[in-house]
Amino acid sequence: MIELIGGSIHCGKTSLADKITKAPGKSCLHIDSLEAIILSLYTSPEQLQERFPKSWMRGQQHSNEALFDNHTPEEVTQALITQSRSMWDAIQIFIGKEIEAGREFAIEDYHIHPEFVARCKQRFGAHAIATVFLIRKDLQKIVNYMQKHPRKGDWLIERGPVNIQNVARVVMLFSEFIEREAARYGMPCVRTDVDNFRWAIDVAGIELNKQRWNREYRTRKDRKT
C-alpha cells in the first residue's frame, strides 16, 4: 500500500512520515527531493515561472526572504498550489513503479492534494492508496509553534518576527484550501494546531492504519467468497 500524506506546509507531515516508516519494509519519499531533481535537470527558466512559481519567486539565491517579503501570503499560497500540481505526473509514475514492485511507501509533502489522491485511487485502485491530510488553522498557534519549535532542515527555519506572520498566514490559507478539497472528496483531515502535537500525529497514524486494516479485511473477505 502507498500512504499519501498531504496538507499545508509546516503541519507535521514529515513527523508523521518518520513515525510510520519505522516499521520494517517501509520507506518514505519526501517530494521536495524529487522536485529538486526535476528543477535542476529538466526545467527551463520559462517553465520555472509558469509551472514552479514558488521556486521562481525565491530567486536564484533560493531566498525565503524574497518569497515572503516580496509577495503576499495569498500569492505565495497560490504559487504553492500551482507548483504542487506540476509534480503530479512525476509522483504518479513513481507510485506506479512502487505498486508494480509490491513495495510499501509513504509519500509526503504539500504537493499531495485530495484531487491528486482521487486520481491515484482511480488509476491504481482505492485498495492501493491510504491518505490523510494535516492542517493548522489557528493563526496565533501557528506563530507560537514555529517560534518555539524550529526544526533543523526545515526550509522555513530562521524566519524573522515579521516574516513569520506571513509564513503563518500561508500555513492557514493553504490549510483552508486543503480542508475544502478534502471535504469535497470525502478524505480525512487532522488538525495539528492542538495543545498536544504528538497526540495529533498519533491520530493521523491511526487513520492511516484504519484504512490499511479495512483494505486487508476486504481482501480476506474477497478471498473467502
What report would you give on this structure?
- With 225 residues, the protein is of the alpha/beta class.
- The protein has helices spanning 13-20, 31-42, 45-51, 53-58, 64-69, 73-86, 88-101, 114-124, 139-148, 163-185, 197-224; strands spanning 2-7, 26-30, 104-108, 129-135, 189-191.
- Helix 1 (13-20) packs across helix 11 (197-224), helix 6 (73-86) crosses helix 10 (163-185) and helix 9 (139-148) crosses helix 10.
Mean pLDDT level: 88
What order do the helices and strands follow? EHEHHHHHHEHEHHEH
In DSSP terms (H or I, runs of 4 or more residues), the helix count works out at 11
- The order of strands across the largest sheet is 2-3-1-4-5
Percent in helix: 55-70%
Structural class by sheet pairing and helices: alpha/beta
Kindly report how far apart the N and C termini lie. 22 Å
Strand content: 5-15%
Radius of gyration: 18 Å
Write down the overall geometry: globular
Main sheet record: 5 strands, parallel
The count of β-strands is 5
Low-confidence segments: none
Write a brief structural summary:
The protein has 225 residues and is of the alpha/beta class. The protein has helices at 13-20, 31-42, 45-51, 53-58, 64-69, 73-86, 88-101, 114-124, 139-148, 163-185, 197-224; strands spanning 2-7, 26-30, 104-108, 129-135, 189-191. It has 11 helices and 5 strands.
Characteristic key phrases:
single chain; 225 residues; alpha/beta; five-stranded parallel sheet; 11 helices; 5 strands; 62% helix
Ordered list of secondary-structure elements with their pairings:
Layout: E1 2-7, H1 13-20, E2 26-30, H2 31-42, H3 45-51, H4 53-58, H5 64-69, H6 73-86, H7 88-101, E3 104-108, H8 114-124, E4 129-135, H9 139-148, H10 163-185, E5 189-191, H11 197-224
Parallel strand pairs: 1-3, 1-4, 2-3, 4-5
Helix pairs in contact: 1-11, 6-10, 9-10
